[in-house]
């Protein structure tokens, strides 16, 4: 800690990070041990965070992340979209297909940024705000594959291809965003084709890497 920082705010943010890393919540004692402070300090931190709906406590007394965090999270989408647009524009123009950035929203995939190519005679209309199940479409499947990447063979491609899962006659390719703390998503393209050309998969991987670097 330096003279310019707030110890209380630092501890409060650490509480939120600890709670975000667990699915089962933490007790006051567990938080006290992890933070290295006494229980009275933890009670005060939780009470303050509860006032702002950033933390909630269940009937068993375990603290969990509160719904107020979702309101803050909604403001992240415009920032993520802005950072991703240059890579998406380059991808769309290079491939001649609609490029998109998709993030996880609960159990769904949510398109938060879409760029259509400027030079094609026709392309797939794909709008920001479009939602679909994570297990349908290249964008969602790429995210699910990333969750299991530790178990994948090392020679598996870093992209996912699909055909006709979200729109008849359309094929998709997507690669997950990797190494971006707090952001789970993918970058991909969708095109009117029976199959995705061979060069598209690696190009999508490169675009996902560019977006990830822009978000770090």
Q: How would you describe the overall organization of this protein?
A:
It holds the Pfam family HTH_IclR. It comes from Streptomyces humidus. GO terms for molecular function: DNA binding; DNA-binding transcription factor activity. Residues 6-67 form the HTH iclR-type domain. It is built from seven helices and eight strands; from the N terminus they run αααββααβββαβββα. The chain is of the alpha+beta class and 216 residues long. The protein has a six-stranded antiparallel sheet with strand order 5-4-3-8-7-6. A two-stranded antiparallel sheet has the order 1-2. A hairpin with a 6-residue loop joins strand 6 (160-163) and strand 7. The longest helix has 20 residues, at 76-95. The chain is elongated and about 65 Å long. It starts with 6 loop residues before the first helix and ends with a helix.
Outline the fold blueprint.
Blueprint: H1 7-20, H2 28-35, H3 39-51, E1 55-57, E2 63-65, H4 68-74, H5 76-95, E3 98-105, E4 108-115, E5 131-133, H6 138-147, E6 160-163, E7 170-176, E8 185-192, H7 200-215
Antiparallel strand pairs: 1-2, 3-4, 3-8, 4-5, 6-7, 7-8
Task: Work out the helicity level.
Answer: 40-55%
Distance between the termini: 23 Å
Mean pLDDT, rounded to whole units? 90
Give the SSE order as H and E letters: HHHEEHHEEEHEEEH
Unreliable segments of 5+ consecutive residues: none
β content, as a range? 15-25%
Shape: elongated
Oligomeric state as shown: single chain
Q: What would you report as the Rg, rounded to the nearest angstrom?
A: 21 Å
Largest sheet properties: 6 strands, antiparallel
Q: How are the strands ordered across the major sheet?
A: 5-4-3-8-7-6
Total of helices: 7
* Count of β-strands: 8
| Structural category | alpha+beta
Domain IclR-ED: 68-216
InterPro entries: ArsR-like_HTH, GAF-like_dom_sf, HTH_MetabolicPath_Reg, Tscrpt_reg_IclR_C, Tscrpt_reg_IclR_N, WH-like_DNA-bd_sf, WH_DNA-bd_sf
GO molecular function: DNA binding; DNA-binding transcription factor activity
Domain HTH iclR-type: 6-67
């Amino acid at each position: 800690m330096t003279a310019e920082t707030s110890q209380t705010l630092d501890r409060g943010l650490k509480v939120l990070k600890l709670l975000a890393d667990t699915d089962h919540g933490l007790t006051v004692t567990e938080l006290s041990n992890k933070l290295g402070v006494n229980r009275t300090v933890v009670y005060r931190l939780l009470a303050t965070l509860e006032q702002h709906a950033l933390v909630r406590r269940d009937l068993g007394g375990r603290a969990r992340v509160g719904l107020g965090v979702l309101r803050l999270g909604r403001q992240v989408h415009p920032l993520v979209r802005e950072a991703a647009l240059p890579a998406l524009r380059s991808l769309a123009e290079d491939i001649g297909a609609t490029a998109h950035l998709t993030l996880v929203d609960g159990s769904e995939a949510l398109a938060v940024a879409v760029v259509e190519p400027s030079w094609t005679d026709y392309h797939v209309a794909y709008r920001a705000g479009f939602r679909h199940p994570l297990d349908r479409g290249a964008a969602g499947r790429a995210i699910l594959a990333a969750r299991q990447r530790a178990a994948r063979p090392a020679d598996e491609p870093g992209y996912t291809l699909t055909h006709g899962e979200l729109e008849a006659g359309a094929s998709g390719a997507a690669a997950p965003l990797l190494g971006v703390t707090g952001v789970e998503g993918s970058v991909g393209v969708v095109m009117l084709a029976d199959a995705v050309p061979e060069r598209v998969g690696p190009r999508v991987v490169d675009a996902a890497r560019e977006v990830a670097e822009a978000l770090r």
